[in-house]
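Protocol step 4 of 5: obtain the predicted structure for the target chain.
Materials: sequence only (see below). No template structures provided, no constraints applied. The aim of this step is simply to have a reference model before the mutagenesis design in step 5. Sequence pasted as it appears in the construct record:
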Amino acid sequence: MWRLLLVLAMAGMSVEAWADRVFYLAATGQTEFHDSLELSDGSLLLAGQASNLDWLPAGIPVNELPLSGIQSSASGATGFIIRVSGDLGQILSAVHFPPNSVRSVFRLRTTSLPGTETGALFISGHRDNVANAGYYLARLNHNFIDGLPTAPAWIKNVDTRGDQDNGANSHKAIQPWDVGSDGRVVYVHGEAFRAGWAAIYRLNPQGQREVVEHWRIHWPVEGGEWRGYPASAAPVALEHSAIVMKSRRVGQLRSSTAAQHSNLATDENGNPGRRGSWPDDYYFQTHCELVNPGNCNTNQPGYTGYRVGANDTQRVGAVVVDRRNNHFYFGYSTQSRLPGGNPDFEPAVVAMDASGALKWWARLYRETEQNSPPDQYVDGLAIDYANDRLVVLARTHGNNVINFWDGNQIALNPGGQGFQNRFTGTNGNIHLSWLGSYGLSDGRIYAATYLGEFNEGANVGAPHPDPIMGGWPNPNAGWPNLNTTRCRARLAIFPNGAVGVACTGRRSATTVNAYQSMPLPGQGLANWNQFVRIYKPDLSGLIYSSLLTGHWDPAVEAGMGNTWIASVLPLEDGLLAVGRHEADDQGLPRGAPVPTSAVPVWGSSQPSGHSALIARLSVDGDFRNQRIFRDRFEP
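Step 4 output (structure tokens):
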């Protein structure tokens, strides 16, 4: 199929976009989709949860997966994966766990690079109602291409300790992990922003914790703890290693020598004077030796006045592996205190090679004695293979002069602009998301934009000059008030480096090619909503932006604010978005239905309550033609 499209494009002939397809799962009870994955034959996997599976079509292959040691007894929920045709026309097959066991299948990952033959399939999901609840990791014994899975090849129960809810700061809720092309899984264990335990471990291809050569904390086979690196120099046999995510603990993301701690470097945006070789040097006056460290926690604050906060476990918001070389990247936040004693949260992104050696780290803002009072978090990471970039999704709670890098102040992009350069307006007690594009090898920042949708009644500026914006105000004109805009962790990176996101906003800007448009500011009322969006690879503008919310009455703003888009996936001609329609306390659908289109036999135009929602949205014009050149595997 794609070769025919390529011939047509090279001949200058038009290529018709696939029609938009938006619908609900035709099912009773509670259902929702969490994630999706495109297989190398063009079919799609959809992962989620349901209170029953009566909606599966008769006659399709269906396998019940054994728990194989997964510890969970979720009530009223069944985790499932369905395989559907690429046009969403039919369900082809399904696998699921036993009813009332695991709550969900939440994440789907493979060992393969985008556009190549599908590799081994890995999943994760929620574990409930057991003493050490959290999430599970599993490698399935088939990937739907080489056969329908019949069982996990291995499983790992991940204990998230005190993180037992679905909050944004819960490792159980966000399930940060990824797998490399070698089948090794880097994952996060434990609780965030508490006093207990949190760590990053790596599993070998057989699902066992393994020794990582250049990590600095290791557990010997005979017990105890050995601190040092490389691991091959240990005087005893080692069982496994970890990066312990505790800001006060010895030997983690801090310098172990005075020379490392006093090192002066240039930050990711070319500013000299950043002190320390590791990100957690920020909070301490001196280094912390690996052997005989003494009390390393009294020598606070660090060189700008920051010290660590009351709870020392750190929140790891995202992990991603580059499947070309198995280098891995993680983003985290530390509970901190400003010089005056007020609480704060500081972000960092860390890059390591496959051996665990540090490549680089980035703070996401400039370290100065003014500090950065907003709370800041890393929510998502993704690899842009086309441009050798790491795309960072971060979030700030509060406005201040020192915040994430402005889109028009990037040293390696002189004269460049982000679609939204900075946090504007006077609303400070809100959350805004932010995207940054970093070099995989050098850790320098190349582009950035904020994601902050307009507040109702905002003092907007002049219209945006790009025709695709259809007269929407330019977020870089004037000083408009914004409102909370939070995006999901799963980023969709297209083959040309364009970045897709799913977010919650208020007066969310939409493009002229949107499936569901938002009226311009001042033209009717709007409420909270879900939107999906594609940014240009350099984050300077939009390619596509559409709402996915209940069809509302702009005169009274009733009917919207009733959906949740969990993730987005790049497709041949646009993107796939999956999530749910929300129900009220009586189990009835909230608000009005999302406008539906081309509903297949297994779908419905109406939600039944808490109902799974799916949208296959096409993107017109030059962007679609660029997609034709995708290096897609064909058997």
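Step 4 remarks: Residues 36-151 form a domain with the Lipocalin fold (CATH 2.40.128). The chain is about 5% helix and 35% strand.
Proceed to step 5.
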